[in-house]
Amino acid sequence: MRPNATLPCIALSVALAISGSSMAQTQVPPPPSALEPSPGMSSMAQLDANRDGFIDKSEVPSGNELAGKFARLDTNSDGKLDAAEFSRYQQEKR
Questions:
Q1: What is the percentage of the chain residues whose pLDDT exceeds 90?
Q2: Contacts of 23 (CB under 8 A, 6+ apart)
Protein backbone atom coordinates (compact mmCIF):
# COMPACT_ATOMS: atom_id res chain seq x y z
CA MET A 1 0.00 0.00 0.00
CA ARG A 2 1.19 3.48 -0.74
CA PRO A 3 2.07 5.66 2.29
CA ASN A 4 -0.26 8.45 1.10
CA ALA A 5 -3.29 6.07 0.95
CA THR A 6 -2.87 4.87 4.54
CA LEU A 7 -3.66 8.21 6.17
CA PRO A 8 -7.13 8.65 4.58
CA CYS A 9 -8.03 5.05 5.51
CA ILE A 10 -7.07 5.64 9.13
CA ALA A 11 -8.99 8.94 9.21
CA LEU A 12 -12.08 7.26 7.77
CA SER A 13 -11.86 4.41 10.30
CA VAL A 14 -11.58 6.85 13.21
CA ALA A 15 -14.52 8.92 11.93
CA LEU A 16 -16.73 5.84 11.61
CA ALA A 17 -15.79 4.63 15.08
CA ILE A 18 -16.58 7.99 16.64
CA SER A 19 -19.90 8.39 14.84
CA GLY A 20 -20.93 4.86 15.76
CA SER A 21 -20.25 5.37 19.45
CA SER A 22 -22.08 8.69 19.54
CA MET A 23 -25.11 7.09 17.90
CA ALA A 24 -25.15 4.39 20.57
CA GLN A 25 -25.19 7.03 23.31
CA THR A 26 -28.16 8.92 21.89
CA GLN A 27 -30.58 6.00 21.67
CA VAL A 28 -33.88 6.60 23.40
CA PRO A 29 -34.74 4.00 26.04
CA PRO A 30 -37.85 1.93 25.37
CA PRO A 31 -41.05 3.09 27.07
CA PRO A 32 -42.03 1.30 30.28
CA SER A 33 -44.13 -1.76 29.72
CA ALA A 34 -47.86 -1.16 29.81
CA LEU A 35 -48.14 -4.29 31.94
CA GLU A 36 -46.06 -2.82 34.75
CA PRO A 37 -48.28 -0.61 36.90
CA SER A 38 -46.88 2.68 38.03
CA PRO A 39 -46.91 3.34 41.78
CA GLY A 40 -48.33 6.80 41.02
CA MET A 41 -51.53 5.58 39.36
CA SER A 42 -54.44 7.49 40.80
CA SER A 43 -57.47 7.20 38.53
CA MET A 44 -59.96 4.39 38.69
CA ALA A 45 -59.52 3.69 34.98
CA GLN A 46 -55.76 3.30 35.42
CA LEU A 47 -56.08 0.94 38.37
CA ASP A 48 -58.99 -1.17 37.09
CA ALA A 49 -56.81 -3.54 35.06
CA ASN A 50 -59.54 -6.06 34.25
CA ARG A 51 -62.06 -3.32 33.40
CA ASP A 52 -64.83 -4.76 35.57
CA GLY A 53 -65.72 -1.39 37.10
CA PHE A 54 -64.12 -2.21 40.46
CA ILE A 55 -60.62 -2.08 41.89
CA ASP A 56 -59.65 -5.19 43.79
CA LYS A 57 -56.58 -5.28 46.02
CA SER A 58 -54.54 -7.23 43.45
CA GLU A 59 -54.93 -4.33 40.99
CA VAL A 60 -53.32 -1.82 43.36
CA PRO A 61 -49.51 -1.62 43.02
CA SER A 62 -47.73 -2.25 46.32
CA GLY A 63 -46.03 1.17 46.22
CA ASN A 64 -49.33 3.02 45.77
CA GLU A 65 -50.68 4.80 48.85
CA LEU A 66 -54.09 3.25 48.16
CA ALA A 67 -52.69 -0.17 49.12
CA GLY A 68 -52.38 0.87 52.76
CA LYS A 69 -55.87 2.41 52.87
CA PHE A 70 -57.71 -0.28 50.91
CA ALA A 71 -59.33 -2.12 53.85
CA ARG A 72 -60.62 1.10 55.42
CA LEU A 73 -62.00 2.41 52.11
CA ASP A 74 -63.75 -0.90 51.32
CA THR A 75 -66.72 0.06 53.48
CA ASN A 76 -68.94 -2.86 52.38
CA SER A 77 -66.06 -5.36 52.87
CA ASP A 78 -66.57 -7.03 49.50
CA GLY A 79 -62.82 -7.03 48.70
CA LYS A 80 -63.05 -4.39 46.01
CA LEU A 81 -63.57 -0.66 45.69
CA ASP A 82 -66.53 0.63 43.71
CA ALA A 83 -66.73 4.13 42.23
CA ALA A 84 -68.18 5.67 45.43
CA GLU A 85 -65.51 4.11 47.64
CA PHE A 86 -62.74 5.20 45.28
CA SER A 87 -64.24 8.69 45.13
CA ARG A 88 -63.88 8.96 48.93
CA TYR A 89 -60.20 8.10 48.53
CA GLN A 90 -59.78 10.85 45.95
CA GLN A 91 -61.55 13.35 48.22
CA GLU A 92 -59.12 12.48 51.03
CA LYS A 93 -56.16 13.22 48.77
CA ARG A 94 -57.25 16.81 48.18
A1: 45
A2: none
